[in-house]
Amino acid sequence: MQPVMSGAVPQKQTIFWLPSVFAMVVTVLLVITSFFYHIKADDIWWHLKAGEFILENLHLPEQNIFSFTAPEHRWLPHEWLSEVFFYLAYSWLGYRGLILLGVLLNALACALVYRLTLRYSGSPFASALITFIAALMMLGNFSLRPYLFGNLFFICALHAMEEPTAGGRLRPALIFVLFAAWANFHGSFLIGLALILLYLAAAVSERLLDRRRWSAGQSLWQAIGAAGRPAALDFASALVACVVTPNHVFGLIFPLLYIKLAFSREVTYLTNISEWQPADLSSPLGQMIVFYLLFCGFAIVGSRKSPRAVHIGLLSAFAFFAFSSIRNIPLLGIAATPIMARHLPPTFSRFWSTALARVGLRERLENWHRATVELNRRSSDWTLPALTALVLALIFALPPSWKISYPVLSGVHRLADLSPDFYPAPLLDELDRLASGKRVFHFFNWGGAIIWGLYPRQRVFIDQRNDCYPPEVFRDYFAVHNLELDWSEVLDRWRIDFVAYPAGSRLSQALAESESWNLVWRDEKNLLFERRPRSAVSGR
Of these four, 110, 159, 233, 402, which has the most CB atoms within 10 Å of its CB? Predict the structure, then answer.
């Protein structure tokens, strides 16, 4: 089956009742992520509280106001606009509006991936396959977090780099707007700047290696300037845009903190928190990356086409990012789309042509493929997704008592149901009753929930705002968590009154055996300990 590989797409004669492959891909993703593969709410809690604070006070917090361990440590809320959007969605539409926002952002990202692949493949079926693979990699970290906006901006930037003439004279302004928004929504804008530099280097290299593209009488530097000028202008526009934030130049250099910490030997979130850990080759995630890269290699070799240097650079760079930190795996699925779209369709075409020729079905299926591609070209792209989004919005808006409402169909009756291990509601009620205003040492994953549910009555020891704490707080937390020799002294030094931890953890077992702590509440999953008065301990 030989797909249409390139060229301008003819003008559509829309058949409104007939959905295209693009429409079906987006619709399937909307339905699956709404009812079958729920978005998670692991870290949304402190983002909601930050959005609430910003809207109520009309300025960004400058210090770690949610914590008693580092109240004067600088807090640079570089994702403030995402937090405002999340809080507005929650305050206007409740938890269902917040879930719907996350589902729509993910579906829009996948739609842009599909459009990017179609630019090269021309085949809606190959584009659908590549999009679903990218969607699977994005669903591995499908959570209500600002990175949903970051993925969207990254795909937009990739579109812009793949189409260097898009936008015409307005291109610098469009690049400026894209990166100005990106820098206020998510810290991954730094990856966007690196993306432009990668395309700049590739354009210069290709021009230097192909002297036939040099104009008559051009010198080396003139050739370099001619090749790199468009991308250099993109980079200048993007760089200026990245300081158009409330944090100005500090917001631009802030993401470099992660690089600095990666090369330090300090005990931080980079060394202890799961999403920042490298993908071990023996782990399922590491094996998934390996299989995906092998699949990309199969597509390149089978197509018998030389890959573009910039696409190899993209694949190599983001494979490294994915192996270095599992939170970057979704970015690999996005960054690999140009090379997959360029090489997978001819590989499949050659494979199927050879296989089908042996069973006498080649000509029949090729005719069927051409007919369906033409039918897809004439079909409607947006009618079905728009109708599906409208139906979903109505389902989300229905009262919970209705049989076709979102809570009944999904089993999700509140935001905490998406990630109950990260929002222990009964424990929070007991903390509010027994430990309000006291110092509580708690499980790391519950920090955001305590901020959302109990601040300002309760402040946290630590939470998922990883850049808000100095290394000594991380060292002390993990000293207690791992029951190091001085774990009890750490609790004394911080004057901890209560400890809230999961049942069955090593720390809970140690506290249950200690004479200094008394178990005051428990449920099936979590325990709450209170420090005994020193007189009671000494009198035993």
Answer: 110
